[in-house]
Sequence to fold (221 residues):
Amino acid sequence: MRGGDDSAAPITPDLLLAAYRAGLFPMAESRDSAALFWLDPRLRGIFPLDGFHISRSLARSLRRGGFTITTDRAFARVIDACADRPETWINRPIRALFLALHARGDAHSLEVWDESDGTLIGGVYGLVIGAAFFGESMFSTRRDGSKIALAYLIHRLRAGRFRLFDTQFLTPHLASLGAIEVPRATYRALLREALVQEADFNAVRAIPPAQEVIQVSTQTS
Fold:
């Protein structure tokens, strides 16, 4: 549901943070659109941090390895890869706002690299406020690239004591991994609780081995 028309005043990083705190988020009609719209969905997608589902095939991909995980090493490349599709809501203003938020330490990325040739094969980026992580988008250029990124991201959010992982909308892909929909009122209550808590995206200093990521998910899901 659209929360209103595009704003006449330029949207600043601080205004964007205030909107997220209020439960809103921006999207654009297309890559070439100059306008942004505020959205406030009646049903909100979230990832229960103890409900991520690692399938047998994903577990095999994790154990097989051949990839390297980093965080905040290639934020601009991740957001550009997320936008590199026929239809995208990531326009130039959104890209610029999130690059500014990343420079301030408010937005983060997690990258998956092919170990053999150093190619970026998957990733996810989002915004951190308090103990809430607002997942913006993810991409994959090779099998399970985005799922591997999500597995390591959720492990990181758990370790950092995050309370809310907002996915904005629920897609069949996210639902298959354990994401759910909650009514707007429920989301707002979860958001209020998360905003007054503290969390640390960088609590994990060393990237954990794949088996640890699998075990923690299996124990809590």
Notes: The radius of gyration is 17 Å. The beta strands are 25-27, 37-39, 43-46, 67-71, 107-114, 120-129, 132-140, 164-168, 180-183.
